[in-house]
Structure formats: C-alpha cells, structure tokens
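Progress note, sequence design subtask.
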C-alpha cells in the first residue's frame, strides 16, 4: 500500500528517514535541551495566560462540561497512535518502509477511533447527566484522525533531533489555542469556544509538522513483517499509555460523576497548573532523551553517565517545584483565578508529588525504551493501575478534590520510583550513586517547603489580600523558598549544587565549541584494546575516565588517541591497588629523555612501563605507545604522526594537554 511519490520531494524524504549520526551527539543534545527549555518557557507561559484569562471569562461548570466531553477523545488518542511512533524513533533499519507502514496503520486507527468516539457520545452525556458533554464528545471526535496524521512526520523529526518542531510547531499550537479560546470566550461562545480552539490548534500543528518534516508517504512500502516487529516493541508502550490515560479518565470521570461538573472544572484547571512541571519533564525527556538513549544504548559507559546526569537535572528542578505547590498552592490559585476557583487550589496542593514522580518515571521509561527493553514497562504499568485506582477509591469520597490530587501524586511517585529502579538496572547505575543525588535534594526541598508554608499561612495569608499585594507576597514566598533550598543544597551536596549552577550558566551563555565536559551525554570514547599485562573479563563493559577523575560527574576529555590504562574493577570498587594507578600516572607525567637508537620514551628492547615480552599498554612486537624500533608510526626517530601530538616535547616533559591519560574501568558485573 503506497501512494505516488511527490515530485521534487525525494531528496527531502530520504533525508527525513536517514539514520542520525551519533557523532557530536553531546553538542546536539545541549542544543536540543536549550531549545526545548526556551520553547517550554514560551509555550507554558502562553498556556498559563490562557488558563488565567479563560478562568475569568468562563465558569467552572462550563470548563467542566468541556472536560467531560473531551475525556473520551483524550483517552482514545493512545490507541490511534498505537505506540508505533516510538517504535519508529527507536528503529534503525528499513526506515522508509517503516515510515510508510506506521503512517497507514495509525491513519486507519485514527479513523476508527474517531468513529468510536462519535458513536458512544450519547453514553458520555448520560454518564455525566447532561447533553452538553455528549455533544462536545461528538464534536471533538475528528480530532483523533487529525492527530493520527502527525505521528510519522513528528516521529521522524524527533528521531533526527530536528528541533524545528520545538521552535516553531509547539509555540504556534499554543498561541493558536490560547488566542482562539480567549477571543471566543470573550464573545460569549462558552464551551464551544474551547472546541473551536482545539480544532484550530490541531490543524496548525498538522500543517506545520508536515511542512517542516519534509516527508511524504509513498517512498517506502507497507510491510506486514515490519508492522509485526514494531508492534511487538510498541505493545508494552500501549499498555503504559493505557494505564496513564485510564487513570486520567477515571479521575475526571469519577470527579464529574460524584462531585459535579463545577468540581470537574476546578479539577481540570488545578491539575493543569500542577502538571506544568511534569509536562515540561515529559516534553524534554521524551523528545531529547529517548532518541539519545536509543543511539547510545550499546555503549554502557555513555548510557550510565547520561542517565545520572539526566536524573540530576530533572530531579533537582522538579522536586522543589512540587514542594512549592504544597506551601503556596491554594493561595496562588485564589489570587490568580479568583475565589470561585479555590477548589482548584486543593487539587494543586494534592498534586505536589506529581512532578517529582514524573521526573523519576520519565528518566526510567526513556532509558528502558531507548535500550529496546520495552517489556519491562509492564511492571510500571501494573503498579500505576493498582495504585491509582486504589488511592482514588479511598481518597476521593473522603477528601474530595484534595483527595483526587493526592491520588495522582501517589500514583506518580510509586510508578516513578519503580521506573527509576528498573532504569538504573538497565543503565548500570549503582544505588549509592543515585541516592547521592536524590536524598540531599529531597531533604533541602522538604525543609524549604515547611518554612515557606509557615511563612505564608501563619503571617502573609496572600489569598485574603488585594490581588497586587497578594502577588507581591507570593513572590516573597518564592524567593524565600529558593534561598533556603539552594542554601541547604549547597551544604548537603556541594557536587549537586555545582552541577545545578553549571547547568544554569551553560543555559544562559551562548553555545561554544566544547570538548564535551558539560554535555548531557558525553562524546564518543576511544576504543579500548585489552592488554596482556592487565587481566580483564571478556565481554565486560568498559568506562573511560580521565586521569585523576572518577565517577559519572567527572569531566570528559575529547582525545581520540590518548594512551589508555586498563584497570579491572568489581561492583563499583576498583580492584586494582591504588599504588598501581599512582605509579601509572607518575610514569605518564614524569620527564622523559629523547628517544634515540631504537629506544622509545626511555624504554628499549620492546619493554614499556615495566611490561615485557614485547607488549606495552596493548601494543606488541617491540612497540611502545605506537612506536617501534625508534620510530614513530614508521617515520623515523623522534618524529610523530602528522596531526597527532608528540609524546615528548623538546623540554623533555610529556605534553599532558595534548594527550590526557585515560583510565578505563572494566566491570566484572555490569552487563556481563
């Protein structure tokens, strides 16, 4: 099944489905993370402005009617995609055929899901006890087909780290929905203004995505074999999305059924504001980390360091955001939206754990998907369903809107914790290394939350003040919280504090050419050749670290031909004695005499650094550090290869800046 190839688009289509290179991956991810952060600030600011404006123009009951009517559409969108977009991003062969296959399958799914939504719309109206909800459900059914048309071009852009979507599509979509919703709500369209705004934003997304992706169906061919392969990968993803959407469906459905449409409207806006940090995490993590982990999945060292640095970045920002919601959530909503929306503040406070839980879950899930082990997500999916339903049934009848928010937090934290634990095993991250990041941030955030809560509710009471004074007092709350949080974090974990400061400085300054030291995922490392002098474990992964450094946060070096020392290690503990490392560094950095008469770096007769039998650091047959019989790469005594730093300078000392020493750990347990 294929359509005619569009004239003049063959080259662009081939480029869109080309295999992305992992060369200079860290710079690509730095650029992508910065673009995502900038676009995120823009889109979330627009969304927040739209929420505040519409809340002043519409009543909670009208917003609740739109939420009830669109609940089924939000649920069925999972099945229209069928997890195949993620499978397309992760795939590495037959991409043109895979793209065509995903396009036709998801398009058919979208049409079928639209028909189902339209057919059952009367049941939605009957469930919520109103005709408006059923009419909205029928009116929004076609959105599923429009969304299905964006799956392949969007997936290909994400796979290629094409950040045009982040820079153009997302802000355009947010602006379209906000402008349309605000204008029509002001004109008295009520709930139908939101329906029209939804279609307008989806059409803008569709047009821009296809225009920027440069892909058209027809270059490849539909393949049942490829579909079956991708479906096996996608099935656990569908189950995971089903659990997430099912939980949201149950939350909104039970809230509207038990508490009424007005409470459902408060739930929607409270959840919308509370989910801003979590939404940010999902967007950045899924768009940047998933394709990145997919490209480096076979490199244990890079995957481990990338996992830890990503976890640090997301946890150190999401945890304080959630803690701040507990301290000032309710007064913030009252001051911003008005007294009639106070119930949304309770949802906001209850969902304080949602963002941190999403941070943990996103890192874990993206690493699991990136390594192709999507079946492990079934454990997270099962946990999510059990915890969410149980917490909702217990907390909703007793605590109302606050209970709904707390149920969402419980689900996110439990599922996120399990996902990060599984992700750590997949990425080879030790529990101790993870706790060094997680615990100090948690303690600092909770302490700052308690102090700010007492300040706001015991002294300021911003929700009882005029709007200008209330906003000013809330700003003071935020500044006090940040000061306490950053100060405690500096005391409890200086390394995490420095990492946070470095990330902020990197985000603020203009991109420069770097060696990868502050990259989100390190640059490719030099190939390691095992030596006969140092025992190793066959098949065990290796991790290259510069001299004098250790751990995943150590600075990276960009030396492709640096001399390498191979050190066997156990479960996170070096089994090589410390004196061996010290002696190696001393020999490497010590003054050396010029090489003459068949000698290289002061060693002769095929001996180097105390190793005999003609072997030295992986080199044999009378060679030492690439030199043989007084020659450097066969070019004569004392000479070096063109374009390669010399091993000895004229002053008789080693050029350390030219070639940093690489210490390589080979684990007996990781991945073996």
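Output:
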């Amino acid at each position: 099944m294929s359509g005619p190839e569009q004239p003049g688009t063959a080259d662009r289509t081939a480029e869109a489905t080309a295999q992305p290179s992992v060369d200079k991956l860290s710079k690509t991810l730095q650029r992508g993370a910065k673009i995502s952060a900038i676009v995120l600030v823009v889109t979330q600011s627009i969304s927040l402005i739209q929420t505040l404006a519409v809340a002043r123009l519409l009543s909670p009951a009208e917003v609740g009617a739109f939420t009830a009517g669109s609940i089924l559409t939000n649920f069925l969108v999972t099945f229209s995609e069928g997890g195949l977009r993620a499978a397309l991003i992760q795939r590495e062969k037959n991409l043109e055929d895979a793209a065509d296959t995903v396009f036709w399958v998801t398009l058919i799914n979208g049409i079928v899901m639209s028909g189902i939504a339209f057919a059952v719309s009367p049941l939605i109206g009957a469930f919520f006890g109103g005709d408006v909800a059923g009419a909205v459900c029928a009116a929004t059914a076609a959105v599923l087909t429009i969304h299905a048309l964006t799956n392949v071009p969007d997936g290909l852009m994400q796979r290629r780290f094409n950040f045009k979507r982040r820079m153009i599509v997302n802000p355009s979509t947010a602006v379209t929905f906000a402008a349309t919703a605000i204008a029509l709500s002001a004109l008295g369209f009520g709930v139908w203004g939101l329906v029209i705004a939804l279609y307008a934003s989806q059409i803008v997304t569709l047009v821009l995505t296809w225009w920027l992706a440069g892909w058209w169906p027809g270059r490849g061919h539909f393949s049942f074999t490829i579909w079956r392969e991708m479906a096996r990968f996608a099935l656990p993803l569908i189950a995971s999305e089903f659990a997430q959407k099912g939980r949201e469906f149950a939350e909104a459905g039970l809230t509207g059924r038990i508490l009424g449409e007005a409470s459902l409207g408060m739930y929607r806006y409270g959840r919308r504001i509370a989910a801003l940090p979590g939404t940010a995490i999902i967007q950045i993590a899924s768009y940047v980390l998933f394709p990145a982990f997919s490209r480096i999945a076979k490199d244990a060292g890079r995957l481990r360091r990338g996992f830890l640095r990503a976890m640090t970045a997301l946890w150190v920002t999401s945890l304080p955001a959630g803690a701040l919601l507990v301290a000032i959530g309710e007064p913030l909503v009252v001051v911003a939206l008005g007294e009639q929306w106070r119930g949304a503040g309770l949802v906001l406070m209850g969902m304080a754990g949602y963002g941190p839980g999403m941070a943990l879950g996103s890192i874990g899930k993206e690493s699991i998907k990136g390594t192709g082990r999507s079946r492990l997500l079934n454990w997270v999916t099962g946990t999510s369903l059990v915890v969410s339903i149980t917490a909702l049934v217990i907390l909703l009848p007793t605590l109302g809107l606050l209970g709904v928010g707390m149920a969402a937090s419980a689900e996110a934290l439990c599922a996120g914790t399990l996902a990060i634990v599984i992700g750590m095993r997949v990425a080879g991250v030790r529990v101790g290394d993870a706790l060094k990041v997680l615990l100090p941030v948690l303690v600092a955030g909770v302490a700052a939350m308690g102090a700010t809560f007492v300040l706001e509710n015991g002294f300021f009471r911003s929700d009882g003040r005029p709007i200008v004074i209330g906003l000013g007092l809330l700003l003071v709350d935020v500044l006090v919280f940040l000061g306490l949080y950053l100060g405690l974090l500096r005391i409890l974990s200086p390394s995490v504090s420095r990492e946070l400061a470095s990330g902020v400085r990197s985000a603020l300054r203009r991109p420069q050419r770097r060696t990868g030291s502050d990259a989100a995922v390190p640059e490719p490392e030099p190939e390691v050749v095992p030596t006969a002098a140092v025992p190793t474990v066959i098949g065990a992964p290796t991790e290259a670290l510069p001299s004098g450094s250790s751990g995943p946060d150590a600075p990276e070096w960009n030396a492709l031909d640096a001399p390498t020392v191979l050190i066997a290690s156990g479960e996170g503990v070096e089994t090589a004695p410390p004196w061996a490392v010290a002696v190696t560094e001393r020999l490497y950095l010590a003054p050396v005499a010029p090489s003459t008469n068949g000698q290289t770096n002061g060693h002769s007769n095929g001996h180097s650094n105390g190793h005999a039998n003609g072997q030295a650091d992986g080199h044999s047959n009378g060679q030492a550090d690439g030199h043989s019989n007084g020659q450097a790469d066969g070019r004569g005594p004392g000479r070096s290869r063109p374009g390669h730093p010399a091993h000895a300078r004229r002053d008789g000392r080693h050029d350390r800046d030219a070639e940093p020493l690489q210490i390589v750990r080979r684990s007996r347990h990781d991945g073996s």
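The longest strand covers residues 564-569. Work on this subtask will continue into the next period as scheduled.
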